[in-house]
């Protein structure tokens, strides 16, 4: 598994049941986690940057997963906040709802690191059985452990 992915996976940055029902509201909710744990300098500017990027081209993969992100100076290091929605949230034009949202804050100079991490996450969630296990994880700690185990399995 990417050492960097292992470093940024944090149970404190996982919302197991998003309260919100729209993509913008979900992004705000996950960005709040990043703010509350000191990963984002200006929450509102960061959320705006993520939503502006999402507005240009949806990060919905079509498999119930989305990877919203922003390349910005508002984060000092690569940050990952994760949200899960049982009901699902509509992202972009796809009619298929998103259930797992992986929100990345990317310092402008860390694009390669971001690509390595997002690639590792994408390989984990590509497998339907792994997505189902992530959806069933009862705690944020178990969710993170499933991500780590999945990342090791797909290396």
Which labels suit this protein?
155 residues, globular, alpha/beta, five-stranded mixed β-sheet, Mannitol-specific EII, Chain A, 48% helix
Helix content: 40-55%
Might you state the CATH topology name?
A: Mannitol-specific EII, Chain A
Tally the structural domains.
1
What's the N-to-C terminus distance? Answer: 6 Å
Rounded mean pLDDT is 89
Q: What's the name of the CATH homologous superfamily?
A: Mannitol-specific EII, Chain A
Q: What is the ordering of alpha helices and beta strands?
A: HEHHEEEEHHH
Give a structural overview.
This protein is α/β, with parallel strands linked by helices. It has one domain (3-154): Mannitol-specific EII, Chain A. It has 6 helices and 5 strands; from the N terminus they run αβααββββααα. It has helices at 3-8, 23-36, 43-56, 111-126, 128-136, 140-154; strands at residues 14-15, 65-66, 69-71, 79-89, 98-106. Strands 1, 2, 3, 4 and 5 form a 5-stranded mixed sheet that branches. Helix 4 crosses helix 6 (140-154). The longest helix is centred in the last third of the chain and has 16 residues, at 111-126. The protein is globular. The mean pLDDT is 89.
Summarize the structure.
The chain has six helices and five strands. With 155 residues, it is of the alpha/beta class.
Itemize the secondary structure elements and their pairings.
Elements: H1 3-8, E1 14-15, H2 23-36, H3 43-56, E2 65-66, E3 69-71, E4 79-89, E5 98-106, H4 111-126, H5 128-136, H6 140-154
Parallel strand pairs: 1-4, 2-5, 3-5
Antiparallel strand pairs: 4-5
Helix pairs in contact: 2-3, 4-6, 5-6
